[in-house]
Write a structure and sequence with these properties.
The chain is about 55% helix and about 10% strand.
Length: about 280
């Protein structure tokens, strides 16, 4: 009797052991360092199969700051910063907050421009069931939200590639739900940004925007990706942020590398530049 009880107890331990869980259902196993290669492959494959299922032939990547919000919200933030400064006029941090809020408010026009650009491209390229030049963003707030919102305005699909960060980032509410993905690996996320890209459209931004811009410029410079135009909105911002001409003058890039970049000011100008690039290639 005791032998039978022992056998049954051991059988239950077997059935509830982690080793007995089917491998693809064992989350702890899949999350182990040794399975990193498998997780990276899954992150590559899941969006790829989805894009195929939705017949997405090509994309336009839109990058830009998460901090550039629509003008009304930018003004509200500026008003709050000014009110806080009024309460403590000698506080240098509050003066700095007002100065920064003023600069964001001055750039809030780019939210509307990004939204209009996405409207323009999406309404023209997703007619009659086509899925060409689908807007793809990082899926977050700011300029990314504006671009997804522009596609949403005209009932078109758009893609969001969100990333897991220590500070939680939720996807914006304008992405096509079936085309919103969450990534753990920046490298695989970058791959999906550029794999089907027909253009890279970049608005003023910070470290993340610079990282994505220079990653694409390096791949274009070295011929490691398809030829696409790199469109920068806001010449004054970009020429203050990065002295591209200085790099060429110093001989650290070729003069012809400057031709990889095109500065524009309006949605229509950007769309004309993209069409002209592919018409001549």
């Amino acid at each position: 009797m005791n032998d039978e009880k022992t056998r049954q107890e051991n059988l239950q331990r077997i059935l509830h052991s982690r080793s007995y869980v089917v491998a693809y259902k064992d989350i702890e196993f899949l999350a182990s360092p040794e399975l990193r290669h498998a997780r990276m492959e899954l992150e590559q494959l899941k969006p790829e199969l989805t894009f195929r299922a939705f017949d997405i032939e090509s994309t336009i990547v839109v990058f830009g700051s998460t901090q550039i919000v629509e003008p009304a919200e930018a003004q509200r933030r500026l008003d709050r910063a000014r009110a806080a400064l009024t309460a403590a006029p000698d506080d240098p941090r509050r003066r700095r907050d007002v100065a920064r809020a003023e600069r964001i408010a001055a750039k809030s026009q780019y939210y509307d421009i990004a939204r209009e650009f996405a409207r323009l491209v999406s309404s023209e390229c997703q007619a009659a069931g086509r899925c060409d030049y689908v807007v793809i963003t990082g899926g977050g707030p700011g300029i990314m939200e504006a671009a997804n919102r522009g596609a949403f305005d005209v009932g078109a699909k758009s893609i969001g590639l969100n990333i897991r960060l220590p500070k939680e980032q939720s996807p914006n509410p304008y992405i096509t739900p079936e085309l919103c993905f969450q990534f753990h690996y920046f490298a695989i996320r970058k791959l999906h940004f550029l794999l089907r890209a027909k253009a890279l459209v970049v608005f003023p931004g910070g470290f993340g925007t610079f990282d994505e811009l220079f990653d694409a410029l390096t791949l274009r410079q070295t011929g490691r990706m398809q030829e696409i135009p790199v469109i920068l909105f806001g010449r004054k911002y970009w020429e203050n942020a990065v002295n591209f001409r200085f790099l060429a003058d110093e001989g650290t890039i070729d003069d012809r590398d400057l031709d990889l970049i095109r500065f524009v000011d309006t949605p229509e100008e950007a769309w004309r530049a993209i069409r002209a690039f592919h018409a001549s290639s």
